Amino acid sequence: xxxxxxxxxxxxxxxxxxxxxxxxxxxxxxxxxxxxxxxxxxxxxxxxxxxxxxxxxxxxxxxxxxxxxxxxxxxxxxxxxxxxxxxxxxxxxxxxxxxxxxxxxxxxxxxxxxxxxxxxxxxxxxxxxxxxxxxxxxxxxxxxxxxxxxxxxxxxxxxxxxxxxxxxxxxxxxxxxxxxxxxxxxxxxxxxxxxxxxxxxxxxxxxxxxxxxxxxxxxxxxxxxxxxxxxxxxxxxxxxxxxxxxxxx
Length: 249
Description:
Elements: E1 4-13, E2 16-26, E3 31-35, H1 42-49, H2 52-60, E4 67-75, E5 78-79, H3 85-90, E6 93-96, H4 108-115, H5 122-135, H6 137-141, H7 152-163, E7 170-174, H8 182-197, E8 201-205, H9 209-215, E9 218-223, E10 226-231, H10 233-237, H11 240-247
């Protein structure tokens, strides 16, 4: 039984069909990548899985426009596509969205503690805080600094660490390297590998296809809202049509 199972997921914004019949699975402790061209629907897929698209649909009622979801999402064998985003997070599916988005007026420490808002255990929260600082020493050095003054790379580290402040069975990360310098990207990817090595399943959306293939056990290729291929890096790289038309390799 997969930890995460998506069946025939569809998302339509007004008249634009963003996702159409997407199905995928992530098993406990597995590292799975999602790659594909810009505009393929990768970010929408993660937002739909984590409940954010349904939240947007509720917010738009009466304000014009239309958002329609179809299909099923199961996590730990429980159907979650009807749950609000905070309930999905409470179950251990944690989404780290693209473009970082810290609480800019709060300090690094306050941002991290905000990530633990669902936790009821003070000692466990402290343990995760210490783990975050060990994983990202820069955050420990800047714990009293206002988050909006951090560099882009430091904000991405903060976003990742904040996502881990509540127990994650699966961490869904969207474009973590976007706009970062090569050295910072390598630090971040190394941290993601450590997170996976500690037993957390990872679902990674990332434009750097080569990096995804080095890290993930399996990957899905998404194009125009549909899964067009899946498999190991070796099998996907062996398909010349995929390499030239969809992977940019």
